[in-house]
Amino acid sequence: MSTAYVPVPNAARQKAPLRALISIALAWAFDAMDFSLLTFVILDIMKDYHVALTLAASVSSATTFARLGGGFLGGLLSDAKGRKFSLVFSIFWFSVFECLTGFSLGFTLLMVVRILYGLGMGSMYASGTPMLMEMIPSRWRGFASGLLQSGFSFGYIFAAIIYRLGYSHLGWHAIFFIACIPAVIVGVFIAFALPESDRWKEVRSEESRTLPVGELFKRGRVWSTVHAAIVAIVAFSVTYPINTFYATLLKQTGHFSPATVANTIIILNVAGIVGNVVGGFVSDWIGRKWTLILSAIGTALTSVVFLHIQSAGYRNIFTFLIGLFSIGGVWSVIPTYLAEHFPTAVRSTGQGTTYHIGAALGGAVVPLIVSSIAPSVGGLAHSMTYSVAAASILTIVVALLWRESKGEALE
Q: What average pLDDT does the structure give for the chain?
């Protein structure tokens, strides 16, 4: 059974893996761009709506919590009706609410819109990542995983560029109107140019058509599901204090100009792109587990960057290194690592749910903890350093508790 919007010619199917890699990575990049834009305007939210830092940051956290619901529902839809249908629907959904973010003239309305946006963001990952992993040959799965995940760093760079070019002239509301356009274009391309996952169609024709939720905890899959969720939690805990607060730290503590803030965030995410590509390639060589471990060690060692932002040279070098290891290396293996935890029949539900449990706890709760403990540990820079280093150590421990899955055929 196929849920494709239009028939896709056989010639296009031969090009499907490459087209899937490019288009799904771009969809994730523009999704990440829309999500990351909010981190550049936290101080504006505080000023315009007269709220404290923790409350302003809670908008991002609420969005991240909503991604859990989107990952679960989008995963169910993807496993039941097809990867492609769910992916395209999700892209259009989050694009609409990205645009509506610019119309949020009150803090409550902003919160509601961003929660609805988060549902689409979660659903997009739950649909797109399994689709890509199923369409890529196993020998290139790690490399494709790194390229896909680099989309988040590209998205952050795109957000920094929009912020730098548009913020001063248009204000923070208007930049969200611009940000929603690229994802819609990608969604249209996917609808017309990509076929449905053959792996999903094959399994769907053989399996019963019941909801797959219970399958996550049957047939010895309990530890696979639990471990996948723990991995996602610690991975988000490594990077989300950086994603959420680095721009704010540079603006509030460093008192740097928008250009310096944007340039630093661009350095961070260029390094993330390099780390994702290299880490994905390395994971096909030394394995997922050791790529995670080595990247976590590098992240812990470079987490002191937040304490030394006033020195331009030190800041730029260590910003690149922590981006290379945390946003890059740690995350380069996550898409394929989680995909390899689940069989095809429940891959979207399992991967979408466990990934976004990580987003909700590691990506939403941990940044709130970081901001709330900052006054008692010497400031935001200290709380960021301590949390990132601790999460890196936990990543090493968790990675050691799982088998190596490099080269395994997807069930």
A: 85
